[in-house]
Each structure stands twice: as structure tokens, then as C-alpha cells.
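Need residues for this backbone.
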């Protein structure tokens, strides 16, 4: 790894300093994808399970939601998403880019400027995510009450045994 200012060269790739090269992908796609009609999420080997796992991940949801408003730079995302590590943000952004949900743009400025934005595919997804987030934000009181009732029932059962 060779560092020059905010740019880092790693395995013949130029990356922004603070981003990480990972081998998190099981395999690179080297051939044309198969003709795809529709997946079956209940089938054990269906790739839609992997996609749902990724887009249902809390970091992916938060990143996609922020990018639904406007383009963001890496450090803007890191500051806005409390609790995410730099490594996790880098890995999640890379995975979302690979899935075609976001676009990464590197501008040749000094220091380098890297921004992220949703693709058309990401825009499609964000509409569904916004409904889910809205439901979670408005119904959290009900969920907390249900959890309190459940915990109370469990505590009563355990006290009797």
C-alpha cells in the first residue's frame, strides 16, 4: 500500500485514504448473468435471500436513506450515521455499489473528493424503505409496549416456577 496525501494505491487501485480493500465478495462476476425472471425467497439457494439480507441490514438502510435525499461524501455519511465504524461504512458502500444501488464518483481534486449517490435501482428501493422506516418511527411506542407486556408475562411465569 502506497499513500500519497489522501489517495492510497492498493493492488493497482486508487482509493481514498481511510477506505479499505476487502475480499468480502464470495466470487467476482465474470460472465453474463443468467436470464432472470423472478426469484423464490423461500428456496434455500435463491440469491434474493442474500440481497434481502443486505438491504435489510441496518447500515445499508441508513446509508440508502441518507443518499435518498442527496449526494453525500464519505465523511458526511460517517458523521451522520452514529455508531458506524469507518471500516463498516467502507464495506457497506462497496457492497451497495456492487449491487448497483449506489454510484461512487471520484473527482480529481486535491484532496480527492469522493461522493456517493443513489442509482435508478437504488431510487426504486428507497421508496419501499421509506415506508418501513416511517412505520418503525411512528409505531415504536406500540412495539415498546408489546415488549413490556411480553417481558412481564415471562417474568410472571418464571416467578411461578
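Answer:
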Amino acid at each position: 500500500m502506497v499513500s500519497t496525501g489522501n489517495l492510497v494505491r492498493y493492488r493497482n487501485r486508487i482509493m481514498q485514504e481511510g477506505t479499505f480493500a476487502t475480499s468480502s465478495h464470495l466470487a467476482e462476476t465474470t460472465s453474463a448473468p443468467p436470464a432472470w425472471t423472478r426469484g423464490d425467497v423461500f428456496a434455500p439457494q435463491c440469491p434474493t435471500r442474500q440481497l434481502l439480507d443486505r438491504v435489510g441490514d441496518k447500515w445499508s438502510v441508513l446509508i440508502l436513506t441518507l443518499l435518498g435525499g442527496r449526494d453525500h461524501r464519505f465523511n458526511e455519511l460517517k458523521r451522520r450515521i452514529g455508531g458506524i465504524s469507518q471500516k463498516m461504512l467502507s464495506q457497506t458502500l462497496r457492497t451497495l455499489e456492487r449491487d448497483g444501488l449506489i454510484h461512487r464518483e471520484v473527482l480529481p481534486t486535491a484532496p480527492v473528493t469522493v461522493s456517493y449517490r443513489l442509482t435508478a435501482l437504488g431510487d426504486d428501493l428507497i421508496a419501499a424503505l421509506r415506508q418501513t422506516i416511517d412505520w418503525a418511527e411512528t409505531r415504536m411506542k406500540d412495539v415498546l409496549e408489546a415488549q413490556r407486556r411480553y417481558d412481564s408475562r415471562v417474568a410472571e411465569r418464571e416467578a411461578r416456577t
